[in-house]
Amino acid sequence: MxxxxxxxxxxxxxxxAALALAEPRLKxxxxxxxxxxxxxxxxxxxxxVPVDSRLAWSVLTDYDHLAEFVPDMHxxxxxxxxxEPTRVHQRGEKTWLILDTPFEVVLLxxxxxxxxxxxxQLSGTLKDMYGEWRLLPLPDGVRITYVARLEPGLxxxxxxxxxLLIEADIQRMLEAIAREMVRxxxxxxxx
Length: 191
Prior knowledge:
CATH topology: Alpha-D-Glucose-1,6-Bisphosphate, Chain A, domain 4
CATH superfamily: START domain
Number of domains: 1
Order of helices and strands: HHEEHEEEEEEH
Largest sheet: 8 strands, antiparallel
Number of strands: 8
CATH architecture: 2-Layer Sandwich
Number of helices: 4
Strand order of the largest sheet: 1-2-8-7-6-5-4-3
Structural class: alpha+beta
Mean pLDDT: 84
């Protein structure tokens, strides 16, 4: 009877829920500082992922597919031609409490393969945005760090306590990227 019960569990072992339980816990850490004098926001975040730097790099630079797994992003595509500096157009919408705020940006990317991606806004809904992604090797994977400084545009709402909302949003973004890295490592289909 016990063998029969175990055999009944086999199909469940390969469901998305069971596979999610088998994945490592991917918890991002983020902090947000707001400069009252200049109106700028500085974001610092990281997540440790049990993948190698090359796989992590391939996910971070998969600009044409980021919208498939990054929350709130509806479009991401490389708009530069081969041989030109990498330019990426991204569009989406952030929800802050009850306010839906669309965003659109064209970023210029400077890539140092397998270690760093520096980005700067060329145009978009923010006044200014620049920052970088870094990949730092760990004994059992890689630490993905994200640092950005931005100046909100005129249409960006200022909500009391929005630093906590931004932190949660950045954590959610990094955790989604980390899950995609783990998914690609295991070769599972995107769900």
